[in-house]
Write the structure tokens for this entry.
Amino acid sequence: MKKIGFLYSLAAAATWGLVYAFDDRILVSVSPVTLLFLESFLTFVVLIPVFFFHQGGAAEISTISTRNWIFILASLILGAVANFFIFSGIKYLGAGPASMIELAYPLFVALFCFFLFRQSLSIWVAVGGVFMVAGAMIIIKLG
């Protein structure tokens, strides 16, 4: 399971790299708000058939707890805000520099999981986070 998780994560990283490259071109002539709307709307349209043909898709909705609905709503709102921020970053900095800054997000994941959900935070995660932020800053300043 860890191997497949690693492969999925690597595929996501490569796909996001391609998305950023496309967004860099799109945002030359399209506003971040327009791109966010189009991305959200088209994702909804494309996923409708996938959702209904997915095993357990529609039936699963009725089993989602109220607490998870709150997390889902918060995640959707925060995701839209985050997408707006990164689209704006790409528009004003370019895909390369914006993506280097955004690379700090795993550090924020660890910190939020620690403070909000009491997940453990090892010294190595903290040290790695410092190196990630420092590396991104070096690339932006010298790259």
